[in-house]
Amino acid sequence: MKVLLNCVDMVNASMAGPAIRYWELAKALSKQHEVTLITPNEPNISAEGFTICPNVNDALKKGIQKSDVVISQKISPGMALQAKRSRTRLILDAYAPASLEHLELFKTLSPKRRAHHYQMINNQFLFSFKMADAVICAHERQRDLWHGILMSLDKLTLAKYDKDATLSNLVGIVPFGLSSTPPQADKNALRRRYHLKDSDVLMLWGGGIWNWFDPLTLIKAVKQLDQEGYPIKLIFMGIKHPNENAPDMQMALRAVSLAEELGLINKSIFFNYGWTPYQERQEFLLGADIGVSTHFAHVETHYAFRTRMLDYLWAGLPIIASSGDFFADFVKQHKLGQVVPCEDVAALAQAIKEVGSNRELRQQIKRNMDCVRSQFHWEAVTQPLHNMIVALANEEAPSLQFKEMMQIGYRYLTHGPRVLMRKLIPEKGAKVI
After folding, report:
1. SS3 state at 169
2. What phi, psi does 297 have (nearest 5°)?
3. Which of 52, 164, 397, 432 registers the highest number of CB atoms within 10 A of its CB?
4. Alpha helix (H) ranges present in 30-105?
5. CA distance 352 to 230
6. What is the reported pLDDT for 403?
7. Would you call 322 helix, strand, or coil by DSSP?
8. Which has the closest alpha carbon to 1: 82, 70, 60?
9. Phi-psi bin for 201: left (phi > 0), alpha (psi -120 to 50), beta?
10. Average pLDDT by consecutive 10-residue portion of the chain (433 residues)?
11. Measured between alpha carbons, how far is residue 175 from residues 327, 375, 417 in Å?
12. What phi and psi, each to the nearest 5 degrees, are found at residue 249?
């Protein structure tokens, strides 16, 4: 099958989660399909086994025309119109609940601007669901949420149910994955980089500081341990998003400010103010003793899938995490570390001390991770996606329906009547004035 992956984030040597996901999906799917990865930039890395193409000169439009299936985190009106005309099937990748993230992302804006941004994102998200032939997500909680969305949009039909009562080819679980090749790096390089002692306990924050995370409680816990004389060192692996178009995160600024206020910068807390290249993160992961992820108790947490946890699992790094999300339950179930209540400084400090001071506990956690790691290998997590692609490609694609055309038209109207008319009236000689 010809599969087109439309990545909405920058694909380069330094990549954030969405780009990493599409890079790895392309690699895994290329073993069974003819894969093209469309990127918003000119990548500075080369692909093996699949074609990589920047989205210039109508590359996305042409790619949709030539493909059997398109996978994307969002479906624009232009994509939907071209796919419906070409009878190309659309898979919406809803592994990251964008609407819920944006509840926190623009929290510092004025109420009017925040409402505008949220409505715009939510409209885009719902339109994507309306146009999708199938959806992929990260876990069962998300699957339940997307079932509800699809039912409300009249997308969960009797025909689909009668064909597959499990609806696995309507909403499939395809989480973020990890490499089946173990990480390799000099385990002492991180200590040399930051001039740390062998006796220091190194804790890693393995990703960006987005607005829906809670680094503040963690920084306060480090301060408490520092005052007690416990040799904890916290390293933030990167805080500047590699995509220059991504908005600055207020939470990152607050984290740096609090660490400065508490006198911890370059003493017990170290920030990488840039971003760690994808292939160089092993040095951080293998050099650390603990991987940490803390967040707030809100609806985004409930449906989130913290992709940095996969790196911790990949490297056998014991996890300390806040409660409330998928991975908190997974860590507790498989004894992969410690889970603490959200915003509880004392409980977090105690968990850090318990894991950091007990080498045998850390070794047991590593052995526990060995038992569960393979279920997240990219080869394993993409199998349901492969099944979905085959099922969709083997179905007769419906022609563009009047209802869909009206939905696309309405979506275009919210982005400008001139764009709408150019797309929906393509006949020669037609003129938009």
Report:
1. coil
2. -90, 95
3. 52
4. 59-66, 77-86, 98-105
5. 10
6. 66
7. strand
8. 70
9. beta
10. 95 91 97 97 90 92 96 94 94 94 86 89 92 97 97 92 93 97 94 95 95 97 98 94 80 96 98 88 96 96 95 98 97 98 98 97 98 98 97 81 66 52 45 42
11. 12, 10, 38
12. -95, 120
Domains of the chain by residue range: 2-177+379-423, 187-376
Q: Which of 254, 176, 228, 140 is nearest to 16 (CA)?
A: 176
Contact criterion met (CB below 8 Å) for 43 and 22:
no
Domains 2-177+379-423 and 187-376 share a fold: yes
Cβ neighbours of 253 (radius 10 Å) = 12
Longest dimension (CA), the chain: 78
What pLDDT sits at residue 412? Answer: 58
Amino acid at 70: V
DSSP H or E segment with residue 292: strand 290-293
Rounded CA separation 308/229 (Å): 29
The structure tokens listed for 146 are 């997307």
**CB distance 225 to 348 below 8 Å:** no
C-beta of residue 100 within 8 angstroms of C-beta of residue 301: no
pLDDT in tens, 292-333: 999 999 999 999 999 999 999 999 999 999 999 999 999 999
Q: How far, in Å, CA of 425 to CA of 41, rounded?
A: 30
Per-residue confidence (pLDDT) for residue 170, from 0 to 100: 96
Look up residue 433 and give its two tokens.
């004035």
CA–CA separation, 91 and 74 (whole Å): 9
**Number of C-beta neighbours around residue 301 at 10 A:** 22
Q: For residue 237, which phi and psi values (nearest 5 degrees)?
A: -70, -20
Give the Cα separation of 149 and 155 in Å (integer): 9
Q: Which CATH class is domain 2-177+379-423?
A: alpha beta
Structural tokens at position 389? 């692609």
Sort residue 23 into left (φ over 0), alpha (ψ -120 to 50) or beta. alpha
75, two tokens: 């479906």
The model carries a pTM of 0.90
Topology of the domain covering 187-376: Rossmann fold (3.40.50)
